[in-house]
Amino acid sequence: MTVHFYNSLTRRKDPFEPITAGKAAIYTCGPTIYNFAHIGNFRAYMFEDLLRRYLMFRGYDVKHVMNLTDVEDKLIRTCRETGKSLKELTEFYAQAFFEDIDTLGILRAHAYPAATDHIPEMVDMIKTLREKGHTYEAKGSIYFKLSTFPDYGALSHIDADTLRTGGSGRVDADEYEAEEARDFALWKAWDEDDGEVFWETELGKGRPGWHIECSAMSIKYLGNHFDIHCGGIDNMFPHHENEIAQARCATGQPFVNYWLHCAHLMVDGRKMSKSLGNFHTLRDLLEKGLDPRAIRYTLLATHYRQPANFTFEAVEAATQALRRIRDFRIRLAETTGEGDALQEECAACEKAFVRDMDDDLNISGALGAVFNFIRDVNKKLDAGSAGREGADNALALLDRLDAVTGVFAEADEEAAPQEILDQVAARQEARRNKDFAAADAIRDALLEAGWVIEDTPDGARVKRA
Ligand code: AMP
Ligand code: ZN
């Protein structure tokens, strides 16, 4: 069996055949850093983390690039509303984003190109599109002419009628609906609302549209033609459709072979989103005392193409699942003596895990295989028939599968997030200053947040309560 992915472009499960044998180049649309990401966003990044980790597990040398959108309509609006500069806003939220992905155990991408660091690349691409006759200008802005790209709509499968009726007008906004498929802005001429956000370039005074950012940066970091491009399902139209149009018209080459999209995280049947106000940030959930590993498990456990409802019951179920894994590991660690090496059970579990994950990352099936394994081995442990060697094999298997999922390693290995570490440092400082009341208050606050401080000869350590 080989790895198969459901490809939004072909609408079927295709075997994964990389452009370069043994390698996989992945571009994933990253956050617009104007606010804290919500856990709906993290569902998308979690799915991409699983994809990346699984390809690594299957022996691919993966290169993963994720952009940071640091200039875009919503951001500029937020600058206007808060009186903050683009840089102030984006630096703060980029930092928060990195803290959050670390807390969730999401592997860092190999590169996080920011749009504002790549204005020349975007300008070059727009110039190329202009030279090739794919653009026109209106009121100083430059638009992509949809009629010059007959394949437009192939990814999102929007019908030709929609395009015909919409094709006559143009759209300035970064985000819009499929019914409004129109010539879209590549370069937006400055207007008053943009305030201090503009670049003086050969294209005039203005700023790039959102879509050109991902075409220019993915090509810069991964080449004209690369393997996999991901995002949430809402990115498919117009964003990815526009990316394809820009990239293919500029390079004259194929762009991406596999387009993978994850379904939304829902709340009471509606997409979790900033605009509906029905969202939780990771920080909100941690403040409520939830364990980041349980949040990771919750976001991971539903197949990525299936809408998942976020509920606190689901997090509780994840907590129970993690407890079972931890209890099992403790039991294995304490197993002694001669006995069954559990080779058959380990091999069957790994085979089932790989079979399910090869099938478009069927994580629910794969997790089920591991829990069957835990049940079977527990029975052998009850009967006293498994020995130390078997326990070692089982632990080694869990560690291997942890590299894919991040939920099978020991709970104690959980790294404390930066804000917790900062508080530990503040408590040490208070103790040094003999302000024991302040030190105790910090300790109590940490305990409330689910962390205990242990004073050891090597200094203070923090672990999960
Ligand atoms: P944005 O910052 O809105 O561009 O979103 C960043 C990423 O999160 C994109 O890939 C979106 O598709 C994804 N996303 C946004 N909301 C959700 C949600 N409720 N469930 C899953 N993914 C989402
Ligand atoms: Zn993008």
Account of the 3D structure:
- This protein has 465 residues and is of the alpha/beta class.
- Among the domains are: 4-262, HUPs (Rossmann fold, 3-Layer(aba) Sandwich); 414-465, no CATH class.
- The chain contains 15 helices and 17 strands.
- The strands form 5 sheets. Strands 5, 6, 7, 8, 9 and 10 form a 6-stranded mixed beta sheet that branches. The chain has a 4-stranded parallel beta sheet with strand order 4-3-11-12, with helices on both faces. It has a 3-stranded mixed beta sheet with strand order 14-13-15, covered by helices on one side.
- Helix 4 (119-131) crosses helix 6 (210-222) and helix 10 packs across helix 12.
- The longest helix has 23 residues, at 312-334.
- The radius of gyration is 25 Å and the shape is globular.
- The two termini are 43 Å apart.
- The mean pLDDT is 93.
- Adenosine monophosphate binds next to helix 1 and strand 11.
Features:
binds adenosine monophosphate; 17 strands; 4-stranded parallel β-sheet; alpha/beta; binds zinc ion; globular
Briefly summarize what is shown.
This protein has helices spanning 39-57, 73-82, 86-103, 119-131, 160-166, 210-222, 236-251, 282-287, 292-301, 312-334, 343-358, 363-382, 388-405, 418-432, 436-448; strands at 4-7, 12-15, 23-28, 61-66, 135-138, 141-144, 170-171, 183-189, 199-201, 204-208, 226-232, 256-262, 265-267, 270-271, 308-309, 451-456, 459-464. With 465 residues, the protein is α/β, with parallel strands linked by helices.
